[in-house]
Write a structure and sequence with these properties.
It is a single chain. The protein is mostly helical. The chain is built from 15 helices and no strands. It is globular and about 75 Å long.
């Protein structure tokens, strides 16, 4: 039956697919559909699937093609190719992971409001994540040390990128950034209090008192893996779980501000692979001296841009907190 259908109709069938996997699976169903997929329309078919699953392509393209040779706020026209789409899929998969994390961190306290994102919210979330990632790639690197962060030309360069987006879109980026912060606080570099709570949850009957802020040399138990996190907080003569804490509330705040310079891909990698504080510290040290004691600049630049627009920063943050702004707004 498909042999009698025009190729244009079959291409439209492909263009209605919602994911790359659906498109590839469809191409394997019969010789006719496979021939259409392998035709000159292949790039159009794949790009439509990538847009549907990982879009917006425009924002993802600005991220994957950015380099220091051109200012981040300059929009680049990128010709489509299969190699380019493969790069989009790589960052898109990271975005999809964060998309799944978002409801759990967004409604961490008021979990009764927790829900799945609509298709429009998923699209807005990915767009905001790509933009946050672009900012991090452009301005959280060795070329931007703590000694130049307040220089007027540097501030204006950062502001030019944020001025590309409306205040509503900046609220979406801030919303995503808050979720990244929550993952950092709870999983990548937890505070002493978080370690205490996790320890008591795993060992509720113990009288053992954790020792925080110690500088003892200790080895990390080789039996602990990402799949065996229960053992992470088990005290031994060679291991003190309190050493996993990143400080009390005040010092921990500045740790998280530093860690927010990591891009979403790096944060997710550390969440999945860095079992101990030692491993996170080693990763951060490998980035270079510029990273240490050099907090992220997005929040400062956001405030600068909002003031330039005569928008009230306090009202902006309250609207974001109560769900009037952001990726997933409060249902009425």
């Amino acid at each position: 039956m498909l042999d009698f259908l025009a190729s244009e109709l079959l291409v439209n069938v492909y263009l209605s697919c919602n994911s790359v996997s659906d498109t590839l699976n469809l191409a394997t169903t019969c010789h006719r559909l496979q021939s259409v997929y392998k035709s000159s329309r292949k790039l159009q078919i794949i790009s439509a699937a990538v847009e549907a699953e990982y879009g917006p392509l425009e924002d993802a393209a600005q991220l994957v093609t950015h380099n220091s040779s051109q200012p981040a706020h300059i929009i680049r026209d990128v010709p489509l190719s299969l190699a380019f789409l493969k790069q989009i899929i790589e960052v898109g998969r990271v975005a999809k992971r964060w998309e799944a994390i978002y409801p759990y961190k967004k409604w961490k306290e008021n979990f009764a409001d927790r829900r799945s994102l609509t298709a429009a919210e998923q699209y807005a979330f990915r767009r905001a994540l790509y933009r946050l990632w672009l900012y991090s790639k452009a301005f959280h690197n060795s070329a931007h040390s703590r000694f130049t962060r307040l220089h007027n030309p540097v501030v204006l360069e950062r502001a030019r990128l944020l001025h590309r987006w409306s205040t509503v879109e900046l609220a979406e980026i801030t919303d995503v950034r808050d979720v990244v912060r929550e993952v950092l606080k709870s999983s990548v570099c937890p505070s002493n209090g978080t370690i205490q709570r996790k320890f008591r949850k795993r060992f509720p009957d113990t009288n053992y008192q954790l020792l925080f802020n110690t500088h003892l040399n200790h080895t990390y138990p080789s039996t602990i893996t990402v799949d065996n996190m229960f053992a992470k907080y088990k005290p031994t003569p060679f291991y003190e779980p309190g050493c996993e804490g990143w400080g009390d509330d005040i010092s921990h705040y500045y740790v998280v501000e530093d860690m927010l310079k990591l891009d979403p891909g790096q944060v997710l990698w550390l969440k999945d692979n860095a079992v101990s504080k030692n491993q996170v510290e080693a990763y951060v040290k490998s980035l270079g001296e510029w990273f240490d004691n050099n907090g992220e600049t997005f929040g400062q630049t956001l405030e600068f841009v909002l003031n330039q627009r005569n928008d009230d920063v306090g009202e902006f943050m309250v609207a974001l907190m109560v769900g009037e702004l952001g990726v997933a707004q409060q249902e009425r």
